[in-house]
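REQUEST FORM: STRUCTURE PREDICTION
Request ID: SP-0412
Submitted by: Lab K.M.
Chain count: 1
Length (residues): 291
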Amino acid sequence: MKLTMGERAFGWLNVLLMLGLCVVTLYPFLYVLFASFSDATSFLQNRGLLLAPAGFDLSAYKAVFRNPMIMQGYQNTLLYVVVGTAINLVMTAMGAYVLSRPNLYFRHVLMFFIVITMVFHGGLIPSYLLVNELGMMNTMWALLIPGAINTYNMIIMRTSFQTVPVSLEESARMDGAGEWTILFRIVIPLSMPVIAVMILWYAVGHWNSYFSALVYLRDSEKYPLQLVLRDILIANSTDSMMTGAASDDKYAVGETLKYATIIVSTLPIICLYPFLQKYFVKGVMIGAIKG
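STATUS: Completed
RESULT:
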């Protein structure tokens, strides 16, 4: 079908608009990237847009990798991501499986109270007192146990579990299978797309989380990477990373050092997200199915 002049103009206008949005969205990241590779003095002298590194220099990255807190933060974050995601997945799967059973008594009442938690919650002070009374203060369990189940994710998984044919469950029960066997050997293997989505969502959440660590952790050796980054950016704790630098140069080096720290801490997610984006979209579509 031949397009009219108005349709072609509309198409080109959409293309230009999308390109403009891409530039506006991408440039802040490019600015941080260029600044991290810039010479400190040249970067501070730059005015206006930064379209290339202002004097290529890797000193900021060398200082970042010399900082033991960055490496310790990486190790802590990887531990929290792996253990936390495993806990989230098991707890969410069990809750979603129970709520997806049509013969569960008071199922709608339970769902009502569960959905309420998406709107109302106890607040920070009661949560802090509860974690303290349970003896989890200053441990990684304070970061992982209180958020073991995300209500929205459980609803998505429940909707997916409801699509598993009932005949498979009935045949498994005739062969003597119990609830645990049905969940882990029938329902979960048939719901791997939503399981993959849950793994991604929970893992990204743990990777980006810092507020719980800020509230519950006291020892800096247990800080996740994002909290280390916060200390560097907000508390301006860059002096320990610039040993050997003259006092007059510390401010200039500290600016590029902050940008290098941002790139180092966000690079894993930036590299993985383009390959995982389709799973995020699929997870949203799964949750949109009425069950």
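NOTES: Residues 8-57 form one domain.
Reviewed by: T.R.
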